[in-house]
Design brief:
The complex is a heterodimer.
Chain A: H1 2-8, H2 23-52, H3 71-77, H4 80-112, H5 118-124, H6 126-130, H7 133-143, H8 150-157, H9 174-199, H10 203-211, H11 216-244, H12 248-253, H13 265-275, H14 279-309
Helix pairs in contact in A: 4-9, 4-11, 4-13, 7-9, 9-11, 10-11, 11-14, 13-14
Chain B: H1 4-51, H2 54-57, H3 72-77, H4 85-121, H5 127-139, H6 142-155, H7 162-186, H8 190-198, H9 203-214, H10 216-232, H11 235-240, H12 249-259, H13 264-284, H14 286-299
Classes of the chains: A mainly alpha, B mainly alpha.
């Protein structure tokens, strides 16, 4: 190493001595390309969306774009359709996240047991998550098909149903079918993340609790659960953020129907902007959704920060 | 007899314990079988539907094992000669998706790793809030950005080009890369950097020659997840693409549903082809994928 120093020491008397850049210059140069992409594709559009949301822009009346101030926001916040779509998104979020967390925890605990062939489950569990969202939606749309679907065939063949049911075109059931498809795909991800949390807990802790007379359930509740709580919270916030802005799976399975029964807030915003050609209201809706997500994101980053320090 | 007595009396509680253990094992293995069936059955049905003859798919009662198996639809959508309109769009989408997802991965990995190194190793003012700002952009819902992006891309004559989607996808994949790679780089001892610096390496040379080789597993994990994110995206593509020039697989499948709403066999075949690359990646590189997923959300 000393040789390295000697050969690289600047030679006095040479016209130019290469001085290293200050660290913050280097940092600026390293971050600049990423920042440029974000600036062009996120910051500029975000500012433009804020501007657009203050006007009544309709593509069916080109050239006539009156300034309405916060009118678009006020209109949405006082509209029954907006709140109905928001509640649908919240309903989807709460139910699917709760199911994914509950089933994911059960699956993670199962994969953590010293069972033979558990490698098989651990290997295959990733497959539903890897299936593209659109293909997953397409697959469930086909399974739930009222006339030729596998769900009806299975349920009638085992005797649970007497006659074929309408699933996706039934406004009472459609949201449940979308939730089912989402839970099937995302539970494995939750399980994988929770399994990593479980594996970071030393098995001696659980053993010690059992030696002290705790039952398996007590050991889980009082030892394991508190230790993996940070991971559970993070998964909870991450899933909530994803679920609230749900679009793809709903769009492919039901298109927001029947009779708007699955019209979540993102579907509502998309339909307002692109089927109603109403860009001003669409931009305002986008901002309202972003606001909710950013509150959740702040909670998430806080949790991560606390976990990082711990 | 006398010698056997204690053994027998010891065995009696032993049977109770063994019965409980057996019950527990039966429960756990039973749960495992249920989990495997639930995971695999929908997949199996998608695969069967993709090769079953149309008559079998429309049979009532449903034939779970099709009487006729045909690969015609796979051929029609991929290599068959004289493709019809839908097959042509599907093939174009396959190419577009591959180009876009690969380009996004390369671009985001290059730009993101560079920034991640700065966040992990260099001291500069505003470091902590800047990385939070990057993360915030990653979490923004597409629906909030899509209207202005649509107008900007139209104004730049980039609408309906793969380039537009590459740039847009890079904007949410890059912050993800920064986040995960910063975590990986922080686990590497900075003594390695110092040694290389003393040897006269510039920061860039340290990154390329020291950090990248050591962080290779992390780079692979991150790159695979970046690819999957780009392959999966739908909403931006739905708005930005118009023709075969830039339509990606999710959009092509969405069109398929509109055009062939009742041709379930063809839909299943298209779905299987679109799912193959990510499913194979997840299966083959499972270790890397799981490492990347947990690094992103658990360790931070």
């Amino acid at each position: 190493m000393s040789q390295g120093i000697r050969t690289r020491t600047p030679v006095i008397g040479q016209t130019r001595v290469r001085k290293p850049w200050p660290e913050s210059w280097v940092a600026a140069a390293f971050i600049a390309p990423a920042a440029l992409v974000i600036l062009l594709v996120v910051v500029v559009p975000l500012a433009r969306a804020a501007w657009m949301s203050l006007f009544d822009i309709s593509l069916v009346r080109p050239g006539d774009e009156p300034f309405v101030g916060l009118g678009n926001y006020i209109e949405q916040l006082t509209s029954a359709d907006f709140w109905a779509a928001t509640w649908r998104a919240l309903w989807f979020t709460v139910v699917s996240t709760a199911l994914e967390l509950g089933l994911g925890l059960a699956l993670a605990l199962l994969m953590d047991q010293p069972l033979r062939f558990r490698w098989l489950l651990r290997t295959l569990v990733i497959l539903p998550w890897a299936l593209p969202t659109i293909v997953n939606a397409l697959m469930w749309r086909w399974i739930d098909n009222a006339e030729y679907g596998a769900l009806n065939a299975l349920l009638t063949q085992v005797g649970i149903l007497h006659s074929y049911q309408v699933w996706l075109s039934n406004s009472d059931l459609a949201m449940w079918m979308v939730i089912l498809a989402d839970v099937w795909k995302m539970t494995p991800l939750v399980a994988i993340l929770l399994l990593a949390g479980l594996q970071s807990v030393s098995p001696e802790l659980v053993e010690a609790a059992k030696v002290d007379g705790a039952s398996t359930i007590q050991a889980f509740r009082h030892v394991l659960l508190p230790l993996i709580m940070p991971v559970i919270l993070i998964v909870l916030v991450l899933r909530t953020m994803e679920a609230f802005k749900v679009f793809d799976i709903v769009w492919i399975m039901t298109g927001g129907g029947p009779a708007n029964a699955t019209q979540t807030i993102a579907i509502y915003a998309y339909q307002t902007a692109y089927q109603g050609y109403d860009f001003g209201r669409g931009a305002a809706l986008g901002y309202l959704i972003a606001l909710v997500i950013m509150v959740l994101a702040a909670i998430y980053l806080r949790l991560l920060g606390r976990l990082g320090r711990a | 007899m006398v010698a056997a007595m204690p053994t027998a009396s010891r065995r009696r509680p032993g049977i109770a314990v063994r019965a409980r253990r057996l019950g527990r094992a039966a429960f756990l293995y039973g749960a495992m079988v249920v989990a495997l069936v639930v995971i695999l059955a929908p997949f199996a049905w998608l695969l069967i539907s993709s090769v079953a003859a149309p008559v079998d798919l429309l049979a009532r009662p449903l034939r779970w094992i099709p009487a006729h198996i045909e690969f015609d639809r796979f051929a029609a959508l991929t290599v068959g000669s004289s493709p019809d309109d839908s097959a042509q769009s599907f093939r174009a989408a396959l190419v577009n998706s591959s180009i876009i997802a690969s380009s996004v991965t390369l671009l985001s990995m290059a730009v993101g790793t560079l920034a991640a190194y700065a966040f992990a190793r260099l001291r500069f003012p505003g470091r902590s809030w800047l990385i939070l700002a990057f993360m915030a952009t990653y979490m923004l819902p597409p629906i909030a950005l899509i209207l202005p992006l649509y107008q900007i891309m139209s104004a730049l004559h980039l609408r309906d080009t793969p380039l537009a989607l590459i740039i847009i996808y890079a904007s949410f994949v890059t912050p993800f890369v920064i986040w995960i790679m910063r975590g990986y780089i922080e686990t590497i001892s900075s003594e390695l950097d110092d040694a290389a610096r003393v040897d006269g390496c510039s920061r860039l040379a340290v990154l390329v020659r020291v950090i990248v080789p050591v962080a290779a597993p992390g780079l692979v994990s991150t790159a695979l997840l970046a690819f999957l994110m780009a392959w999966d995206e739908f909403l931006y593509a739905l708005i930005i693409t118009q023709t075969n020039a830039s339509k990606t697989l999710p959009v092509a499948i969405n069109d398929f549903i509109g055009r062939h709403g009742v041709d379930f066999g063809l839909l299943a075949t298209g779905g299987v082809i679109a799912a193959l690359p990510p499913v194979i990646i997840a299966f083959v590189f499972q270790r890397y994928i799981v490492a990347g997923l947990t690094a992103g959300s658990v360790k931070g």
